[in-house]
Amino acid sequence: MIDVRQLTKRYGGTVAVDDLTFSVRPGGVTGFLGPNGAGKSTTMRMLLGLAAPTSGEGLVNGQRYAALRDPMHEVGALLDANAVHGGRSALDHLRCLALTNRIGIGRVTTVLEQVGLAGVARKRVKGFSLGMRQRLGIAAALLGDPGVLLFDEPVNGLDPDGVRWIRELLRSLGAEGRTVLVSSHLMSEMELTADRLVIVGRGRLVADTSVDELAERY
Ligand code: ADP
Ligand code: ADP
User: Fold this and answer.
1) Alpha carbon of 16 to ligand 1 centroid (Å)
2) Rounded to the nearest 10 degrees, how much is the dihedral formed by the CA atoms of 102, 149, 171, 26?
3) Cβ–Cβ contacts within 10 Å for residue 42, how many?
4) pLDDT at site 157
5) pLDDT tier at 84, thresholds 50, 70, 90
6) To test ligand 2's pocket by mutation, which of 11, 17, 44 has the most ligand atoms within 8 angstroms of CB?
7) Does the CA dihedral 16-19-24-29 come out positive or negative?
8) Which protein residue's CA is at the shortest distance from atom 17 of ligand 1?
9) Cα dist. 149→92, 129, 144, 213, 215 in Å?
């Protein structure tokens, strides 16, 4: 599970995340909704140990990321699909990740099939479209078969088929009992994907509500 407790991050005069508190329990999909600049990426980066909180804490399974004994088995993340570059093949990229993280090599084939990239596994990532990079990023996130998954704006720039595919994947991961947090600035998309919404603006919590409740109120 995920626990964000009074989390704050300042960059000079900018308060990116401002005293944010929420938890996400296993099962279902939680949408992390808010306009660009609301602090969603910064929150996820802190949960992943990629940025240090100014104060407060972000915990995965009750621990700070740095204290997790087997991080890739506990939490997987898709932050920026374009971050996977290079002349290597998708297969090499995932094999290397598996080896350096002591993940059984058989998982590589499993996740490549899961994301629909088995047929292009030997092609260089350099030639991949955004949608293919997105799938590869998701394959990497799933490699350790983690119970907690963070997806930062996964549908950005995808065509309608890609958007639908990601929606179904997130819903099935949630239905398997994993803890799924997905950020987006698109209310309409989150209504279709998530059961619950944690809504943020200017780094602060605006609402924490189930999608059904929201539909009844508006
Ligand atoms: P979101 O993911 O909701 O779009 P971000 O977490 O990316 O929001 O950004 C929140 C705020 O923090 C923005 O004003 C952004 O410019 C600022 N910010 C994020 N990362 C940094 C950084 N490394 N240095 C300075 N400012 C940052
Ligand atoms: P930390 O918050 O842990 O100190 P850094 O300040 O090193 O992290 O920033 C992390 C990344 O965010 C850097 O690659 C930096 O270039 C990028 N960054 C810097 N300013 C901004 C900004 N205004 N909005 C978003 N990202 C930014």
Assistant:
1) 5
2) 100
3) 21
4) 84
5) confident
6) 11
7) negative
8) 16
9) 23, 23, 11, 24, 26
Task: Specify the ligand 2 atom closest to the Cα of 52.
Answer: 3
38-56 pLDDT, tens per residue? 999 999 999 999 999 999 9
Cα 62 from Cα 163, distance rounded (Å): 32
Q: Give the three-state DSSP class for 18.
A: strand
Q: Which residues line ligand 2 (CB under 6 A)?
A: 51-52
The amino acid sitting at 47 is L
Asked if residue 113 lies in contact with residue 40, where contact means CB atoms within 8 angstroms, the answer is: no
Q: In angstroms, how far apart are the furthest CA atoms of the chain?
A: 51
CA of 140 to the centre of ligand 1 (A): 24
Residue with tokens 């990229």: 93
**Which listed ligand is nearest to 83 at the C-alpha?**
2
pLDDT score of 83:
72
pTM for the full model?
A: 0.91
Atom of ligand 1 nearest to the CA of 153: 2
Asked whether the predicted pLDDT for residue 215 surpasses 90, the reply is no
What is the 37 CA–ligand 2 centroid distance (Å)?
13
Q: Residue written as tokens 């804490």?
A: 57
H or E element that contains 43: helix 40-47
